[in-house]
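Supplementary notes for students who missed Thursday's class. We covered one full example, reproduced here. Read the sequence, then the structure, then the short commentary at the end.
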Amino acid sequence: MVNWLPHDSGTYYKNFGVGNPYDKVNRGEERLPGVGLAALNPELQGVDPNDYSLVYKLKVLSDVARGSKEHRDTREQALEAYKAGDLSNRETEILGTTLDQEQQLQQKKDFYTRPVGNLKGPIGSFQSSLWETMRSNSESPLEMLTPIRPVAKFLHQRTAIEDYIETQLGGSDAAIWTNPYSHFIKPTLNKTRQSFDIGNKVFIPQETIEKYNIDEYFDKFDYIRKRMQGADNYALSTVIGSSLSGLNTKDKVLQFKASLSDDQKDYFDQFSKETNEKRRDMIRAMIPDDVKRGYEQIWQNVDIARSSKKKGTSVQQSIANNFHEQTERLREAYDVSLTKEESNKAIAKVNSDKDSYANMGMSNSDRIKYAKDEALRLKMADREALTYVNNRTGLPSRGFVGWDPRLKTDDIKIKSLSIGGEDLRRFGFWKKDEERLRQLEGIDDQSSQVFSQIDNIKRNIRSERSMKRGIERTMFDKGFRVSNINLVDSDYGSLLIKEDNNG
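Structure (token representation):
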């Protein structure tokens, strides 16, 4: 076997120098150096495996021996060769694809949730305090300037909130080699600025706000596309569709989680079960506004359930009452109502046992009430999404290529980001997505209401976020605590405030 694969069982759990190496990994003939790999990569045919280029060595090691010393050393050498300009165009492409794949595999996060051990007494208290200090202060802003970031990688003891601040607001644990300013220098500056934050105040960089804005726009655009295609169930799989659904069943909560982008999804399990109000405030201050609405609903239902259990009352009925009360308040704010046809459609849905509550032991009248409220909430989402898109880019004409059901909203998004000169990696797009885009001949570079207006999307939504924060500050100064604000077009000439008796 080749000399650049791990061959010391003392440093890596797989020793490719002993026995048949092809038996040590699944489909070894295709993944390890030799005839099989060369058949899949013609440029390797006739090349001695010991003479593979750095990027092909890295490609193999990243696949079959990730984390080994050989993998780390080869990765560093390949990056140095790239920086020195020693790689061909093909080698640069292979390196980029390999690093993209590595980063995707690192998306799953594990968070610190409790002190280590069960230490008691003065000594135990001191040790716990010492550990907490080491854990929370072990990372330095300057670490963001290194491609490996050793403390973040090997002492990754952050809470979900700490990790969100570090990686989503400050930068990323896995710096991407193609953009030094965005992925090394800027995160360092952001983290330095965040070191001055006090209490629940969190510095959110402008580029993060802009990313939130763009993600929210395309989520609402996706909702509109699915509604136009008559795919109501799929429309509810968007952030706006699921967060306005009330999140009063397990299926709806799972639907909301599925609607989140990958970077937001990493934090869902921890954020959704948070019960401490101060930590909830931290989460509120950090996350996108449209995502916050979903968490607010989940937290409210959790609090209602806990309160009902203490009182000995029905959890299901308490959540149902809150759902109906909330729907009525929202109906007034959005100024929507059901037509006779829409009301009959909701009733027919219940009669056919196709509603969400068919197997929950509810009376027919209760199910009809739920079905009508859900239909109302869908109309609210319609109004919010249409208003949102109209105010930013205008609703594209019927001839817009993005309405084609054969395309995905992500296709439209990545094209718009490309034309706008945005960093695609920040939005969760990888090389495979770029390759798909190149294959879509129907999407050209012609001026479009969507494709060419990334700057408008960022600017207009940014002003809306500032308006919400201004309302929150004003209400706080008047003695009111506001957890969530929805801005909708209305014929009212004043601000209508209603007290939420559920807190």
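Commentary. DSSP finds 23 helices and no strands in the chain. Residues 116-120, 134-138, 140-156, 173-177 have pLDDT under 50 and may be disordered. If anything here is unclear, bring it to office hours.
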